[in-house]
Design a protein that fits this description.
single chain; mainly alpha; 79% helix
Amino acid sequence: MPGKHVATDLIDDLFLTSFNVTDEEFNFICANASAEENDIMVDAVSGAENSVQLFTQIRKALVVRNKYLEVFKINIV
């Protein structure tokens, strides 16, 4: 909704854009991922001190994303 964004919506938008997922996919990932997996995704969008560390964090986060997107697709069909 235009003009109705609050801080939590902006954070959600950051994750949606960073991981190229829809709201439904993102909600599914958040609901089903472990706390450790959620932390991996947060670390990837939080940044890192150097580019190698950031690349590693993003790579781990994409593994988590892909894992849950596969499950999400199976549940939709």
